[in-house]
Design goal:
The complex is a heterodimer of chains A (about 350) and B (about 325).
Chain A (H helix, E strand, L loop, with lengths): L4 E12 L2 E13 L4 E5 L6 H7 L9 E9 L2 E2 L5 H7 L4 E4 L3 H4 L6 H11 L8 H14 L5 H4 L9 H12 L6 E5 L7 H18 L2 E6 L2 H7 L2 E6 L2 E7 H6 L4 H8 L50 E3 L2 E6 L5 H16 L1
Parallel strand pairs in A: 3-8, 3-9, 6-7, 7-8
Antiparallel strand pairs in A: 1-2, 1-4, 4-5, 9-10, 10-12, 11-12
Helix pairs in contact in A: 4-5, 4-7, 5-7, 7-8
Chain B lengths: L1 H28 L5 H6 L5 H11 L5 H15 L12 H36 L4 H15 L2 H12 L22 H35 L2 H8 L4 H13 L1 H15 L3 H6 L5 H10 L3 H29 L7
Helix pairs in contact in B: 1-14, 5-6, 5-8, 5-11, 5-14, 6-8, 7-8, 8-10, 9-10, 11-14, 13-14
Classes of the chains: A alpha/beta (about 350), B mainly alpha (about 325).
């Protein structure tokens, strides 16, 4: 199936007082209808900027962007402000991280949904009553109990999970073809997280949306994504089908993420291993491999040579940007995996 | 909500008693001219003076005087009679109220109509010439005292002494009921002068609020939903940024209804502020008490109304 959203060699830089922040540095990915791409990384890895660029939300006098973001063949980065307005919410929609701050505190939830509907009603328009009726349907679709009553609620009157459902209802109001979910479960309780992920999967299948799921939580990715891109310091360092990534991760950073993730099936007493160090500054990123200051397997050459994203032998859809020889990587991961099971 | 308002009203009454007590105390503690002396004239005989004292009740102990005042006020809604003119304080206040209301309401409309667009536009176009011009204008507006600006306005535009005699000048106020057109033209200069300072302050405040609100997540959500930029700014942005302004406007209106002393004096508008000013120069205690209490009532009522309005504007405070 051909991709609905295709990002090609995207670069996004912000000019700040302290210098230029290269937030996204040559990122490419594609998502097909009905499929989910998980973008994983620490805070500041550029994952949110990469995905919000697809909405045309990252624009301004201090932003420099290059590359292409093709939405059904149309370059979003080149689109006029008016064209973008028409795309946002209608063709491509977004679910935000913190539903309390992402909903207007002084406007009723139903009115906010109606407004999103009416913004894309076109020349025919949509009556207030019809928009309201549709808003109730949408709240019902995202499994909010008693939607007739909730439609008139203000955001602060809803629970965290309900707010996120309302925000999702708003995002799918115009049946977009691409849905970007930016840490949609981070602000929620664990039980609610699972419900929201299940809801997103159901809506993706019902509406046949292409979904981009941005998260720092590999557990979320394992449950929902078909494909995973691991971002580090503005770049994709490893990209693979989800099952493949969890079975044979290739990049030391991915190993770090996996080993830092709590697992219910791990034996009691096995320790979580944090990744040492901090994510690098994107103003003057490290030379060579950007991960080298935090990598346990660093060689002198890695400090100078910048690795490219290359397919792994025998798995053309699995690509990794690492200078370690492939045989050595496999051996290292086998060792680490055995150690964490022990 | 009803219980809350009732509680606020009761507190307001307590506050009014305290204000009246304080006004009374200040009047008698501070060295001011003897009201009886002022009334009797310079060459009055001690007998006449004594007679005036007795007739005004000034010979009685202070506690009795205050008690009498309070009793009349509560039982008969009677504020007493002016020492100076002998007219009832209540009727004097009612006479002057329309002028003050005219001045205040006209000015608040003007300053809000000026401040809201200026504040929003300078926030949206931050750093451009529009913003810089507004910022400069606001600084100027805040820096110019009302009495100075009033005199300059009269010097420039009043039809008696002005260089460009466009509008009626000082002392031209006519009640609305007599001649609406003259009422309107006579108030244009005072309105503009009074509104200028407030417009400047409000525009700056709104600009700051708007800049903050426009960086909120929910504004990004509105953009992500494909709403037009105009709707994002003027509905989602302004809706959140304007609430503190409404509160402030309520309080300012309450304050001004108690008398815009400077503006009324410069433009010779017969309002509460002027009445208060005259009462003080005449050591006219009942009239001072009356104007101060009226001003206090306006401030208290404005405070209550602002709280109610705030609950209406922000659903988050409604439940508490």
């Amino acid at each position: 199936m051909s991709a609905l959203l295709r990002v090609e060699d995207l670069h996004v830089a912000f000019d700040t007082r302290d210098g230029t922040v290269q937030a996204v540095d040559g990122v490419s990915f594609a998502v097909a209808p009905g499929r989910t791409l998980g973008i994983v990384g620490e805070s500041g890895s550029g994952k949110t900027v990469a995905a919000t660029s697809a909405m045309g939300l990252v624009r301004g006098p201090r932003v420099r962007t290059s590359g292409r973001v093709l939405l059904d063949g149309e370059d979003v980065l080149e689109a006029s402000a008016e064209r973008l307005r028409g795309l946002r919410g209608a063709t491509i929609a977004m679910v935000f991280q913190d539903p309390l701050s992402a909903l207007h505190p002084l406007i009723r939830v139903g009115d906010q949904i109606s407004e999103a509907l009416r913004a894309h009603a076109g020349a025919r328009g949509l009556s207030r009553a019809a928009a309201r009726a549709r808003a109730i349907e949408l709240l019902d679709q995202v499994a909010i109990q008693d939607p007739r009553r909730r439609v008139d609620a203000y955001p602060h009157e809803l629970s965290g999970g309900m707010r996120q459902r309302a925000l999702i209802a708003m995002a799918i109001a115009n049946e977009p073809r691409v849905l970007i979910a930016d840490e949609p479960t981070t602000a929620l309780d664990v039980t609610v997280q699972r419900q929201i992920l299940a809801l997103l999967r159901r809506l993706r299948d019902e509406l046949g949306m292409a979904m981009v799921l941005i998260t720092h939580d590999l557990g979320v990715v394992a449950e929902t994504a078909d494909e995973v891109a691991v971002m580090y310091a503005g770049r994709i360092v490893e990209q693979a089908p989800a099952a493949e990534l969890f079975a044979t991760p290739q990049h030391p950073y991915t190993w770090g993420l996996l080993r830092a993730m709590p697992r219910l099936d791990a034996p009691a007493g096995s320790a979580l291993v944090p990744i040492p160090g901090k994510p690098p500054s994107l103003i003057g990123p490290p030379s060579g491999c950007r991960f080298h200051p935090r990598c346990a397997y660093v060689r002198e050459r890695h400090r100078q040579v910048d690795p490219e994203l290359q397919p792994v032998n025998g798995a053309p859809e699995h690509r990794v940007a690492c200078l370690l020889p492939e045989a050595e990587r496999r051996a290292l991961w086998a060792g680490l995996a055995a150690e964490s099971v022990r | 909500m009803a219980a809350y308002i009732l509680r606020r009203v009761l507190w307001g009454v307590v506050l009014l008693v305290l204000v009246s007590l304080l006004t009374f105390a200040i009047f008698y503690v501070l060295p001011s001219a003897d009201p009886a002396q002022l009334r009797a004239g310079r060459d009055a005989s001690p007998a006449t003076l004594h007679q005036i004292r007795v007739s005004l009740g000034l010979d009685k102990p202070l506690t009795v005087q205050y008690w009498t005042f309070l009793k009349h006020l509560v039982l008969h809604a009677d504020l007493g009679y002016s020492y100076f003119s002998g007219a009832s304080v209540g009727s004097l206040l009612l006479d002057r109220l329309p002028a003050t209301i005219s001045l205040t309401l006209g000015a608040v409309v003007i300053w809000l109509l000026a401040a809201v667009p200026l504040g929003v536009v300078s926030a949206v176009r931050r750093g451009t010439w529009v913003d810089k011009l507004t910022t400069g204008g606001a600084l100027l507006g805040v820096s110019m005292p009302v009495y100075w600006l009033g005199l300059v306005a009269l010097y420039l535009f009043a039809n008696d002494i002005g260089k460009l005699p466009l509008l009626p000048g000082a002392g031209s106020y006519v009640p609305f009921t007599h001649d609406p057109w003259k009422w309107l033209t006579s108030l244009i200069l005072p309105w503009l002068v009074l509104a200028s300072t407030f417009a400047a302050v409000y525009a700056r405040l709104l600009r700051g609020n708007m800049i903050e609100v426009l960086s909120e997540d929910y504004v990004r959500t509105a953009r992500a939903n494909g709403l037009s930029e105009r709707r994002v700014v003027w509905r989602h942005g302004l809706r959140a940024a304007v609430t503190p302004l409404v509160t402030l406007a309520g309080l300012d209106v309450g304050l001004l209804l108690g008398g815009a002393v400077l503006t009324e004096t410069v433009f010779g508008i017969p309002g509460i502020g002027r009445l208060n000013y005259d009462a003080i120069t005449h050591a006219d205690y009942p009239l001072i008490q009356g104007t101060v209490l009226l001003a206090a009532i306006f401030v208290i009522v404005a405070n209550i109304l602002v709280d109610v309005a705030y609950a209406y504007l922000d659903p988050r405070v409604r439940e508490t």
